Structures are given as C-alpha cells and as structure tokens.
C-alpha cells in the first residue's frame, strides 16, 4: 500500500529507462487505484503490470472487491495471490488461493502464487510440510498446460519486511523441493517449465547470490522495489546473470 497514482506514474517513468532488459521479464504489481494509469503508460513497453490481489468471483455482492474480469478489461496481465500479508492479516486460506488461481487462468491473467512458512513453522522443522500443502492446494485441478502458466513464489513469512533473508542455499533447497512437488503432481517436464521466484528481503546487495542458484528463476521484490533505482539494479543483475548462463 504505497504510492498514489501520480507517484506510481513517476516511478514507471523513472524505471522504464533501465527496466527493459533483454531476457528479463519485469512486472510492477501496484494497488488497484493505479492500475488503469499504469497499464496505459506501460503500453508499448516490455514492462508488465499486475495487481496485488483479486476476488475469485466474476461479479456479485462483494463490496470493496475487484474481479479477474475487471483486471483483464484494464489490460492487467498478472496478479499476486496468497501473499503472506494477505494470509496473515486478511485470513487468506489455501482454498481461496486455489479459487483465485483458477479464476486468474480463466481470464488470461498470470497468477503469481505465494507460498512460505512462518517463523514458528520453520523452527518446528515444518517448512517442507507447509510449503508442499500450500503448493498442492493452490494448483489442485489445474491441467499440465495451465500449471506451466502459473508462477510460484517462495516467500518465507519470517523474511518479509524484517530485513532477514534466507541464505541462497536454503532458498534454493526449498525451491528445489517446490519443483519436485510440482513434478510429483504432474511430471518433470511441467516442473522444469514452471517459473519459481524467491521473495524475502531481496535487494541489490544480495540478488546475485539468489540468482546464482539454478532453480531460482527470479525474485518477488518488496521494499527494494519502492525505489526505481533499486529495482533497476535488480533487473540489471538479472540480465547480467542470464547472460552468464
């Protein structure tokens, strides 16, 4: 919940100069009020625009909510689902994440589905159990083709907005486990095609260590994305890393 419409447009203008790099898919996921202006301003660029949440129904008596059809009509291409803050503060459940994922795919939105454990679950050695359940429930009922359109993001709750981050090795271990979970539900080819991001206090100082891990396909960035220069540095790091692969 940052930036009014004018601030968002200023951000996009500043970011656009460095945010379009070959081989890197850049997406700005903004509050609902800025989406119409951003989709228009981003037209003709390679920068995608996404929402931070949505409801699973197309319409109805859900005051204050926004549907996938509304986002699609705006030209929005992506939507973040199941973010830890939605799960923690707004009672988001695995079932509602599944319903939203289904709705997003039905209306040509790319769902960015977040999974991750709390500090208590991590300390109880339940990371894999929790993450597996969240992944399995979110994609339950999807076809193989639909699954390859989903982006998964591992964001350990204990690392969101705390300044703490998992080590690159630990993040890689969990993301490899997530990919194996997808392979168990579908097959290895589908698992290889699914993009899996890491999110959790990612910043210019540590981005390269995460992208050096082969199974980590990118980053879901929080605080470091509020400044266009910082986000540009992340994109540049990703472009350089991709060039090395």
From TrEMBL:
Substrate binds at residues 161, 201, 222-223. Its EC number is 5.3.1.1. Belongs to the triosephosphate isomerase family. Its main location: cytoplasm. This is Triosephosphate isomerase. It is found in: Cytoplasm. It comes from Melghirimyces thermohalophilus. Involved in the gluconeogenesis. Catalyzes stereospecifically the conversion of dihydroxyacetone phosphate (DHAP) to D-glyceraldehyde-3-phosphate (G3P). It is an enzyme of class 5 (isomerase). The keyword Cytoplasm applies. It comes from the Bacteria. One of its GO terms (cellular component) is cytosol. InterPro entries: Aldolase_TIM, TIM_sf, TrioseP_Isoase_bac/euk, Triosephosphate_isomerase, Triosephosphate_isomerase_AS. The active site is at 83 (electrophile), 155 (proton acceptor).
């Amino acid at each position: 919940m940052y930036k009014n419409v004018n601030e968002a447009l200023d951000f996009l203008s500043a970011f656009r100069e460095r945010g379009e790099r070959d081989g890197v898919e850049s997406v700005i996921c903004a509050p609902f009020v800025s989406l119409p202006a951003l989709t228009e301003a981003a037209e003709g660029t390679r920068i995608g625009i996404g929402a931070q949440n949505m409801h699973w129904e197309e319409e109805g008596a859900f005051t204050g909510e926004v549907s996938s059809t509304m986002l699609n009509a705006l030209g929005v291409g992506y939507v973040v689902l199941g973010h830890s803050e939605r799960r923690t503060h707004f009672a988001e459940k695995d079932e509602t994440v599944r319903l939203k994922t289904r709705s997003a795919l039905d209306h040509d939105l790319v769902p960015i589905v977040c999974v991750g454990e709390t500090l208590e679950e991590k300390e109880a050695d339940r990371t894999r159990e929790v993450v597996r359940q969240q992944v399995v429930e979110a994609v339950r009922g999807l076809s193989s083709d639909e699954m390859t359109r989903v982006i998964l993001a591992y964001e350990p709750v204990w690392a969101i907005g705390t300044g703490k981050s998992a080590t690159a090795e630990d993040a890689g271990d969990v993301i490899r486990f997530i990919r194996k979970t997808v392979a168990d539900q579908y097959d290895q080819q589908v698992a290889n095609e699914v993009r899996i991001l890491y999110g959790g206090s990612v910043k210019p100082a540590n981005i390269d260590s995460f992208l050096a891990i082969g199974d980590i396909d990118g980053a879901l960035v929080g605080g470091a994305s509020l400044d266009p220069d910082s986000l540009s540095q992340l994109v540049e790091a990703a472009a350089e890393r991709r060039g090395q692969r």
